[in-house]
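Request: When convenient, would you put together a sequence paired with its structure tokens?
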Amino acid sequence: MVPRLLDGVERRPRGDAVIDALSRGVRALPLRGGRDLLHGRWLGHPVHPLLVQVPVGSWLSAAVLDLRPGRAREAGSLIAVGLAGAVPAALAGAVDWAELHRRQQRVGLVHALANTAAVGLYAASLACRVKGRTKAGRGLGFLGLTAVAAGGVLGGHLAYRQAAGANHAEEVPQVVPAGWHRIGSVAEFPAGRTARRTVDDVPVLVVREADGDFYALAERCSHLAGPLSEGALEDGCVRCPWHGSVFRLADGWNVQGPATSPQPAFDTRVVDGHLEVRLREPGPAEDDTAQ
């Protein structure tokens, strides 16, 4: 029953005009470097799931205290902590949501509405407690927790069923055979342009620089599997045409979000006039100070 309801949310286009307007608004926020901070590029995966632990944990703890007599004051304090923690969690979630596919955004919008309802209910609960209306405050708190649970179901669907926030290039090291693979003659790769080849059905981006050096990365963007071979080359990097993630050609490092994971990189060599690639063994994480 629940999966069918969630699948129905994915398919309904009724809120698409609202989604378009909200997405433009979120992208227009003057966040600058803070945008990558909120995406979680520094962490290596989205930061939103980490931030939501504060409000969810605080509100769940408040509900436990509300079940015990004489703990209304402590429960109110936890509700206040949860409301404060909901602000950065919501902002991080909105920044991620604005860079998703449409079906993911539809679920994400309902997820946000459920959480907004929870915030409203908990704010009302806190107001009642401050005024001494403890019983009403408790009731509103339990309603808020119900809204949080609904939001959690939607968030789980978004993350685990729709793979929002997942590394879409993670499978590459698992499926590319070891060793060198010939993917074409040198003449097939014009300098300064992107090319797409495959290694055992795994798409590979190939770029030949003007000096003759070759670079190769997994072609599907780690953010949402966008085609990097259709992206623009910029100062030794490639920009995904779908959501603007930027990856360094030399090592696949994600120098700009929304991607939080780097691209698997390949070693290259030329043998008898043909280009060969080999999946590079993962090494220690590199910083992006060169950018």
